[in-house]
Amino acid sequence: MKAAVSARIIGQQGLIERLLVAILADGHLLVEGAPGLAKTRAIKVLGEGIEGSFHRVQFTPDLLPADLTGTEIYRPQDGSFLFQRGPLFHNLILADEINRAPAKVQSALLEAMAERQITVGSETYRLPDIFLVMATQNPLEQEGTYPLPEAQLDRFLMHVRVDYPSAADEKIILELTRAEARSQTHQLPVVAEISQHNLLQARDAVLDIHLDDSLEDYIIEIVLATRDASRYGAELAGWIQHGASPRATMALDRCARAYAWLNNRDYVVPEDIQLLAPDVLRHRIILSFAAEAEGMTADNCIAAILSRVAVP
User: Fold this and answer.
1) pTM
2) Fewest CB within 10 A of the end CB: N or C in the chain?
3) For the domain bounded by 208-308, which CATH number is listed?
């Protein structure tokens, strides 16, 4: 699956790997990048390779919670109500430009992401076992947007930043675009479908990946350093106003195991943790005004922490 998706999504290997990690770790992704960087295409192609359904929701300021969850429809013939399911009952959801929707819509999505259920009226409905939300944000345009609340940001397993492809990759993109334009005569790479049963088995296998006690302590120490950075320098302590929650510890553990499994290893190495730590932590720490005034970013703080916490 990884090879087939990579053949159709050029120059975004990091995004593809993190999508696969998120599926294996049973989490959700927040993806930030300029338009045209294959964010939508990536999850759509991935959806072709998983038994289940994919749905895209374009978030707009006039979106209502019922547009996501579904609504009860009155049946005059017998006086009953029939629940019409909404897009959230699909397996893979693309929440495009998520920060354009108002708070009520965000709260409906938060329940689905956190508890794998939705509530309409007095009824609660379970969502599928395979359920992944990939939300996108456009970092360039901020007019008419609603900042995501910290509680919702914390529910995302990772916050992935997508950058422009290299010149060599962009040339391959041109060739692939021409091939798709004449798709009647050119056979595009087919993504072999993985059953939901096999995917759930893979998740169990990920949990069996060995994580040494010293690496568990390393993960905990990295997260604790975001809460009490004074042990690693006074300037670092002044940069971070609020550190990461225990969800960050759990997320880094699951992601590191999934990444090791994807790379044909039955054990985690420190490099797995260091590679994924920025994606797991960047949306979970809040910088101080002093840090913002100095032009510091969350990534700068995470890099400083990783350079100062002792590697086992």
Assistant:
1) 0.88
2) C
3) 1.10.8.80
